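for the record, two folds in this file. i put them one after another cuz i was lazy. first one right below, seq on top, structure tokens after. the second one comes after a little note so u can tell where it starts
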Amino acid sequence: MSTRTPQLHKWPHKSEPTEESVTAEMKKHGFKVYDRQTIPGWFERSRHSHDFDEIRGALDGVTTFHFDSGPLTVEAGDILIIPAGVPHEVKTHNSRSFTAFKGSVTGARSVTEHGDGRGSLESLQGASEGEA
């Protein structure tokens, strides 16, 4: 990726996004999907960055990525490309869950924490294991 600025691509179709159509849009940008994640309403993810260029393909709901350059709100069908090393937080400012495919150029997940790790995949897994 030649730019260090996040890029938000609004859903270009006049149809509801589906798993297949969102995945196809992600692949057009050269990314490989590595996960599908649903986060709850009022979710907060502490400051972190990705070690590889990352992509989000939103399937349902709305959430906001907070970058130093300003917030970007992502809703169903949108594609967000996050350059490697760009710190950000994620906050859902409503009670609805948000579901998105996650991917990277390599197809692998690699994260650098800049905060306490709150809301990370690892902390979410630990919370669900503790409830079991």
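(here's the note) second protein begins now
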Amino acid sequence: MTEYNATFRKYIKYMFFLLSIFVLGYGFTPYHSIFLGLILGSLFSLFNLWSMYSKVERLGQAVIHKKKVKTLGSLSRLLMGGLAALIALRYPQYFHLLSVVVGLMAIYIIMLIDSLMQAIRS
């Protein structure tokens, strides 16, 4: 397994751990709309991570085989974030909009913390 695959799997584990905390928060606190928003945003964030991973894998294969690559799919990830926000706006009784936005940034927060921890170790 390459370092890239190992890092991707590590981020997936962290996201599932974070999602489990959000589910527990939904179940045991009265802040249901906040935790549902965090869950929704984190699920879309997890999808965006997977999307970026698969696009980078295709890019790597294209470079190896000396082929052209269209794009890394920034527009599709941006549209997925917009879809999550649209769902939160359509159903405000279930999803807290600010929590959805924080959930969408969850993977970037995990990446930042992981990078800081690696910098401290070395």
